[in-house]
Specification:
The structure holds two protein chains of two kinds.
Chain A: H1 2-35, H2 45-55, E1 58-61, H3 66-84, H4 101-121, H5 125-156, H6 161-169, H7 177-193, H8 212-215, H9 221-246, H10 258-284, H11 294-314
Helix pairs in contact in A: 1-3, 1-9, 1-10, 2-9, 3-4, 3-9, 4-5, 5-7, 5-11, 6-9, 7-9, 7-11, 9-10
Chain B: H1 2-23, H2 29-52, E1 58-63, E2 72-76, H3 78-101, H4 114-127, H5 131-149, H6 156-184, H7 192-197, H8 202-220, H9 229-235, H10 238-263, H11 269-291, H12 296-323, H13 327-362, H14 373-376, H15 378-391, H16 398-412, H17 419-451, H18 458-461, H19 468-486, H20 488-494, H21 496-503, H22 530-552, E3 556-559, H23 577-580, H24 582-592, E4 596-600, E5 611-615, H25 619-639, H26 647-668
Antiparallel strand pairs in B: 1-2, 4-5
The chains are: A mainly alpha, B mainly alpha.
Chain lengths: ~325, ~675
Amino acid sequence: MAVIRDFAFQAVQMLLVLLLSPLLTGFVRKVKARLLRRQGPPLLQPYRDLIRLLRKEVVLADSASWLFRVIPYIVFAGTWVAASLVPTFRGGLLFSWSADLIALIALLGSARFFLALAGLDVGTSFGGIGSSREVMIASLAEPAMLMIMFTLALIAGSTQLSTMAAYMASGDVGLRASLGLAMLALIMVAIAENARIPIDNPATHLELTMVHEAMVLEYSGRHLALIDLASELKLLLYMSVIGCLFVPWGLAEPNAGAAAVAIGMAAYIAKLAGGGFLLAIFETSIAKMRVFRVPEFLGAALMLALLATLLRFVSGSF
Amino acid sequence: MTTTYALYCVAVLIALAPIAICFGTSARGNSVVYGSSLVVTLIISVLAVLSLFDQEVTGRIVLPLGLPWLGAHFAIDTLSSFFLFVVNLGGATASLFALGYGRHERAPDRVLPFYPAYLAAMNLVVLADDAFSFLVSWEFMSLSSWALVVAYHRERENLHAGYVYLLMAGFGTLALLLAFGLLAGANGDYVFESIRTSHPTAGLAALVLVLSILGAGSKAGVVPLHAWLPLAHPAAPSHVSALMSGVMTKVAVYGFVRIVFDLLGTPAWWWSMLVLAVGGITAVMGVLYALMQHDLKRLLAYHTVENIGIIYIGLGLALAFKAHDMPFAAALALTAGLLHVFNHSVFKSLLFFGAGAVLNATGERDMEHLGGLIHRMPQTAFVFLVGCVAISALPPLNGFVSEWLTFQAILLSPQLPSWGLKFIVPAVGALLALSAALAAACFVKAFGITFLGRPRTPAAADARETDSNSLAAMFFLSALCLLAGILPGLFIDALGPVTKMLVGVNMPRQTGLDWLTIVPIAESRSSYNGLLVFIFVTLSGSIAAFAIHRLASDKLRRGPAWDCGYPNPSPVTQYTASSFAQPIRRVYGTTVFAAREIGQMPPPGATVPARLSVQLRDLIWDMAYAPIAAFVGYASERLNVLQFLTIRRYLSLVFAALVLLLSVLAIWQ
């Protein structure tokens, strides 16, 4: 019985992240537009975009290979699986032990690896510029993310995200210098990984400074829909990770009743809304930086995370 | 008995060498030599697997060879049977690959005789049970591989590679010779069994450690002793490159493990700091070098340097835990290192085979002249992609498992009491994370520029798919990458006897766990299930594809590329290998390689094109190797006078030397 219930919760989680992620993106866009005194697209616009793209035919470049057509599915599947294994409204997910935080980071790394290959597949200069910049950003963001994971794993004594979240919610944690540094670094990495301002601009299409959008420039139709959905899922994933680790309140216990689950759900949606709101404010109040300032930004994140890990190694009380 | 059989097999390999001299140029020679090598190496790998689970050392054998009072000792214990398996798996796949690949050889008589000898030498190093036969086999291995490196001796750079390789191999053997000399002591009992029982003093043991890092490390390619590796490995024919990179570096790791973990006794705590520092620097420098290359085989060779760094990180952690009497953590770290030995031998062989297939099909190693091969060589492209994903440490393939285990071992290290380690281990962890991320960038470049995009030259446009033997070898290795990635428990359990022998315990048994998960310490702490991740990703990807094609749209139309409205039909407008690496070169290269971009603008009105050139300096070569080479050149020029003396002067020199030595002896006593 318990297994069936856990299974059901895992399935709910999978559908939940899939359904909520376009809404989150729509919400961020709406808030950004309102902050700029524009009306902005309706909240549900991302769903409409996805449906429209799914129904359209794919226009494939002559020089595209089979790999180009497979990659959207790999990227989408990898991101979706990763997002489904992050605790959202209820801890103790059924399959959370199948991939710990290191594996989740690496799974997102796989998705990025294939997306960067897609950028090179057609053989255009825009795709190449996007891929080469993406791997440069990743070469700093990924180690920073791993060092953040080190800090958190040393505090919680586990690399399992569910166990970590439970420990963070338990109140044994207290205020720690290393946690603060790790949170700051994680937010910086999340901004870079999701191609947000000031690293990249998700709204632009005709600038030489773009990274992510340049990489996927040749995609159209259902392929583009999947890639867009994957990046929306990724934004949701990072917000869920930050939420379950640093704002763990409201997360329902594995064997809690219906009321606790309802509270967890409400808290989760409130966390996403809060996160989206802060992201929109941050993005409107800052200008995009030049590409070669990005290493400094991410280098700072890496150093913060390394400092946090070092503090943990030096003394258990930091 | 196993040892006897293994030695018979090695004898067959040695006997193949003179046979190959006779049949070298005939049409049959190729299939006879490679076919027999395939069979023999397969037999030895089966023997190795069988003896891995035998706890006892199977049959020491003393042959009346070598030093008259010593003989040649051979034995198989669990450590050597693991490495025997790695060597012969690599040897078998290389032979299978070469059954097809070798047919296109320009001068088969320069490759065929040395190939079985080289395989035999690597086997003998692993089988040796005394220092003398170890060193002789080691040198035999160096020389036979040297002969293969200079197989294409008409090309100038191959001769240079061979020269540097020979020098470095000599240096490495010298260091190992001294290490064994110190270990054996004044009485000079070179049998491993008696070395084990003689406990060297702390200072002596430290010296042996440094010498074995130098000696085994120079063969494995740790920075800064790696200089020969990216020259020599690519110069050989591709199946030999695969053996050198995938297997011979592992034999070097075997030498290091044999000396440091087995013969040297209890480690001191600071040894691990040395090994960890070497490993961390090697990992990052190796991948940075690799990123700057545009020669496919040289890129792969530099990448071997990175993986050796990762292996040394695992071994260093194991030493640290062993020194502080934390056997379970030591078993975890050692398993991580040794699993990476196996994994790297698999995917590096695979990638070199792929590079060989590309070289055969196009005649090009330079990535700037390739591109679009995925259309012409779809199967090679697929297996090469598998190798790229595996080596970039991405789930669900095997490279990720060993790096994951290394990370788990690092997470155990705050319990280490020494302060030096508390500072160095997080730094090494950061270096490991950095090298993993850079490796992914490197292989996006390697695969993307070579196989994707549009062909940059007619040779790439007219490439043909490679032969079925080569493909069989590559598909077998890709299957192994997947298998070791989704069922890592099997391989971790197989390493159990080895860790038990070296650190006293083995990791908890993995194969009996639910869903075939791997749980290195405790389930609440960490677990990973490659099988489930693989199933989840495949399943959700297929469901998405099925649903979209059924419910939404499955229409597809081909058209010209979009490229923001201005597609340029010329393939030169694509990103090249060096332009792809430009952002990373700018971020890391300005300090590490003193990289500079020099733009030459023509004067106003001139019609010559503007030029942009990139200048990279190998600082290690410039600072370490070039001064030594300059000094040797200078000294030999000065000493050249000695060649033209009269007989009187020579005799007086001999006399002076004798007097000098005698007086030294007199003062000594």
